[in-house]
Amino acid sequence: MQQPPDRAYPSHWEADVVLRDGGTARIRPITPDDAERLVSFYEQVSDESKYYRFFAPYPRLSDRDVHRFTHHDYVDRVGLAATVGGEFIATVRYDRINDRGLPATDPGDDQAEVAFLVQDAHQGRGVASALLEHIAAVARERGIRRFAAEVLPANSKMIKVFTDAGYTQQRTFEDGVVRLEFDLEPTEQSMAVMRGREQRAEARSMQRLLAPGSVAVIGTGRTPGGVGRTALRHVLDSGFTGRVHAVNRAFPEGTDRLDPEGVPAVRSLREIDGPVDLAVIAVPADHVPEVIDDCGEHGVQGVLVLSSGYAEAGTEGRERQRALLRRTRSYGMRLIGPNAFGLINTAPGVRLNASFAPVMPATGRIGLFTQSGAIGIALLSGLHERGPGDGSPAGVSTFVSAGNRADASGNDLLQYWYDDPDTDVAILYLESIGNPRKFTRLARRTAAVKPVVVAKGARHHGTAPLGHTVPTVRIPDSTVAALMRQAGVIRVDTVTELLDAGLLLASQPLPAGARVAVLGNSEALSLLAYDACLTEGLRPRRPRVLPSAATPHDFHTALAEELAREGCDAVVVTAIPWVGEGNATAPGEGEELAAALRSAAAAGPAKPVAVVHLAMDALATALAAPAGPGVPKDVVPRAPDNAPSAGLGVPATGPAARAADPDAPATGPAEPAAQAGPEASGAGAAAPAASAGPETLAADDVPVAPTSPTAPYPLARTPLPAYPAAERAVRALAEAVRYAAWRREVAEPGRVPAYDDIQEAAAGADIARLLDHLDPPAGRSVPLPAEDAAALLARYGIPTQPSLPAPGPDAAVRAAARLGYPVALKTTAPHLRHRSDLGGIRLDIADEEDLRRTYGELTASLGTPEELAPVVQKMVPRGVDTVVRAAIDPAAGAVLSFGLAGAPSQLLGDIAHRLIPATDRDVDAQIRSIRAAPLLFGWRGSQPVDTAALAEVLLRVSRLVDDHPEVVGVDLEPVVVAPRGLSVLGASVRLARPPATTDLGPRRLPVY
Fold first, then answer.
1. What is the 3-state secondary structure (H, E, C) of 896-907?
2. Disulfide: which of 139, 363, 463, 604 matches 563 by Cβ 3.0-4.6 Å?
3. Are 434 and 407 in contact (CB under 8 A)?
């Protein structure tokens, strides 16, 4: 289509969106080439819908109508269409109008009339709501700030579309017509409405893939073996509750059954009576396009492409993958893959294993997403080893390994798991993050209700797998990790840590704090656990070392007592086997000890318990084993006949007893205070009679076997996580402690202060003027001149200290006279900037004579004035030099950074990051989170500096960047924070034209 440059086709308005029912549609501008599509669309609209649109019977469109509705200038007149399979299913248009409702003639008119028409078959799918989001964004881009719409009172569906959008509205009724007017500026409510719709739609699209009523495996081989036949075998072996079809165009004519599987066999989807919800595609990549067409024409809801030969195969494969995605979405389908490992749903009503995993995992509460098939195998295998059996803590609810992740991604699974009642913990292994900004937003919301554990592979630049065609993230991985943690994500480094943290979080309550009790029958192992707690920043009590002959009942009693302590938030139990004559372990010791520990944990207060064992595989298995269906969840164990009168199930005093009987007297020794060193054997709380006395160890620290048997404990339903190393158990517990603390913090979120002196509108006008003057190329930023940068910062209440150029000693003297002594003389050459260690900064110059001498020394030692570009600046009160930065990464979004100037930030990377907009609580935590923070708070007797003023500067910078997306970089260095107040001595600002689309815009699926 040939159009003037200012009316060129706006391709950035094109978007794929997920609708309310989980299907997809494509939204794009309407062009003159759409005339036939528009006529065909209109013919399929009912007379009632036409009446609602035109307020009169309107059976057909005239040629003039068709021309009007397909020819737009994309400024004052814009039309968008939602399409499925290339055909229109809905349209929306706006026409700019003036205050009298007539076509606008003044470019300053900022109001438009908007109208929708949705095909009846697609009403109720949320198409109009999605179109409203996109036409509103288009209108804002074109300078329109307000929409008006006239709707018949009987058209309740369209009235609801407008009223539910969350915009500020006015509603009037005149001449039998409802007139709605609403501002297009996004509000907190409109953003919440849009995000809620996005979550429900994308979750529904995943549910259609994960819980299909029928599955067709396309590419099923005629003989056993091969990808398709293996996938079919796994679907059947998993006990899938829906219908299964085998599809292969190479089946002989007349084939209607595939043996020995005994499933219906067809040559084409067209031969299947009834719907197919999920198509598992296992044909060569060259044949996938025609299969996608068959699926789209049959109404398949989603496809899982196991076939390889896409982006992982190079440039040609990458183009093939993009074409696959376009074709799939054109039919309203979602895609997992290509080159996928598969998906699994263990829900009893589904039981689907459409993957290469040969064994259906146990049913449980963990949701898994991986991009790597190899890591998917490792995770499933690791979970199976550590908790076989349905109901174990290592059980899986859903699993998706997306391969090249052309469409469905970890973001979609987060949307699904957010309100999935069968998933308590989300575990993700990611090799690339296509939309970090959205990922952080979704992870933060999900983490507020359930843990999100992430391991990130390919952390270093340039190491992402070839199949992952995603934008490059410019910020370092350390920054991404910091932002994840701010969003509540539990970031770990290895697959082993993924499993360790996930198992504890799936089976244990969250700790109320960082106070940890350590107990066990080996002093050495207990000390390792104690040291690991200190390393992880926990607050361990002195280890409680049980005697070498400690029985399961002794462990039970000790665990019950520690759990009952008010000063205990979690317990780490360490255990090594008993050894009898001939080095034989006591028979059944693992099962008996597991029952004792599980029953104590189930009957005690809700606190997490982690068990560390050495050479006790039977213990680990028994701790994870699900109890029988007849065992109650909260079991009170039966005490052995020779048990002392302490512990659970018998009369007792202390915290546990007082919890049961508030009037019981407080007797016994007081709880000891936490101490720095480990507790000696026999010290601390009184031990049971059978455990009295110091631990007696052989030379190799192996305790002797117990001499008195105990009665068995019933197996409590609550399992416990077990770890073969103390460090692994404590690291998982520490992650739970930090996550629980984050949950408590977000329960009382901070606020973004509203400063009365901020001149937002004036700053916006300055930015528009500067952009017009500097005219940066598309996608590039430009630095502001120093005077303009200072003026813009001043609009947001951030004053900067002026610097006057000193091209010669006389100019330096004049500058100092203007500023007033004492002054500083500094170079601004890039290689010497902020480098006092190289002599580029001279301070406390008291008078003219001193200044002339210093100027001569500076130029003699470092270079000519032309090379150094020196400036003179007035001295400010001494303090701590800091640096405040804000930058916008195209993928990660706006990031606020803080650190101490010089070596701490430049050499050691001691910088803290927060997402913008930052709250008061965010910046307070940010200031305290750097390792050098003690320098701000009176380290070694120095005077504390004004961190309140520092926090205010951080918040003001955050507001500037958040209010004006054109501000893509702010650098304040140094910011000298004194005991009272601060001074910004150096500042730079970069501007760029804002991107056409961001995560803050209307919802859309990514395209890579």
1. EEEEECCHHHHC
2. 604
3. no
Pick the closest to residue 187 from 170, 206, 202, 167 (CA basis). Answer: 167
CA angle 880–885–887, rounded 5-degree value: 170
Q: Choose among 833, 820, 589, 565: nearest CA to 674.
A: 565
Of the candidates 856, 875, 878, 859, the one whose C-alpha atom is nearest the C-alpha of residue 867 is 859
Q: How far apart are CA 586 and CA 324, in angstroms?
A: 61
Give the burial class of 717: count Cβ atoms within 10 A of its Cβ; 0-12 exposed, 13-18 middle, 19 or more buried: middle
> What are the Cα distances from residue 800, in Å, to 618, 815, 831, 998?
67, 17, 22, 31
* pLDDT tens digits, 327-357: 999 999 999 999 999 999 999 999 999 999 9
Contact predicate 579/703, CB 8 Å: yes
Q: Are 636 and 603 in contact (CB under 8 A)?
A: yes
Taking the C-alpha atoms of residue 200 and residue 209, their distance in angstroms, rounded to an integer, is: 15
Alpha-carbon Rg of the chain, whole angstroms? 34
| Segment 160-210, tens digit of pLDDT | 999 898 888 888 888 889 999 999 988 888 889 999 999 999 999 999 999
- The answer, yes or no, to whether residue 740 has pLDDT greater than 80, is yes
User: Closest Cα to residue 17, out of 7, 32, 27, 29?
Assistant: 27
CA distances to 22, 292, 1003 from 302, in Å: 10, 10, 20
166: left (phi over 0), alpha (psi -120 to 50) or beta: left
What's the whole-model pTM score?
Answer: 0.84
Distance, in Å, from the CA atom of 835 to the CA atom of 845, rounded to the nearest integer, reads 18
Please check whether residue 602 is in contact with residue 720, taking contact to mean a CB–CB distance below 8 angstroms: no
**Around Cβ 30, how many Cβ atoms within 10 Å?**
22
- Tell me the percentage of the chain whose pLDDT exceeds 90: 68
Q: HSE, CB side, 13 Å, CA atoms: give it for residue 691.
A: 27
Instruction: Determine contact, residues 963/753, Cβ cutoff 8 Å.
Output: no
Query: For the residues 734-757, what does the mean pLDDT come to?
Result: 92
pLDDT of amino acid 464: 55
Q: How far apart are CA 133 and CA 452, in angstroms?
A: 30
Token readout for 450 is 């359930």
Q: What is the pLDDT of residue 451?
A: 97
What's residue 835's pLDDT? 66
Q: Which residues pair with 337 in a beta bridge?
A: none
* Rounded Cα–Cα distance for residues 995 and 545 (Å): 62
pLDDT score of 691:
36
Q: What number is the average pLDDT over the span 588-604?
A: 89
SS3 of 22, please? Answer: coil
pLDDT band at 846 (very low <50, low <70, confident <90, very high): very high
Give rounded-to-5 percent helix, strand, coil for the chain.
35, 20, 45
496 token code pair = 């082993």
Q: How far apart are CA 589 and CA 577, in angstroms?
A: 8
State in Å, rounded, how far the first CA of the chain is from the last one. 25
Q: What are phi and psi of 515, to 5 degrees?
A: -85, 120
* Per-residue model confidence (pLDDT) at position 435: 74
Please give the backbone phi and psi of residue 174, each rounded to the nearest 5 degrees, phi first.
Answer: -155, 135
Six-digit token string for 472:
């490059």
CB 570 within 8 A of CB 689: no
What is the mean pLDDT of the segment spanning 769-780?
Answer: 89
DSSP state of 995: P
Render 498-540 in DSSP notation, one character per residue.
HHHHHHHHHHSPPPSSSEEEEEES-HHHHHHHHHHHHHTT-EE
CA distances from 282 to 258, 266, 344, 408 (A): 17, 15, 17, 18
Measured distance CA(439)–CA(445) in Å, rounded:
10
The alpha carbon of residue 167 and the mean position of all alpha carbons in its chain are separated, in whole angstroms, by 27
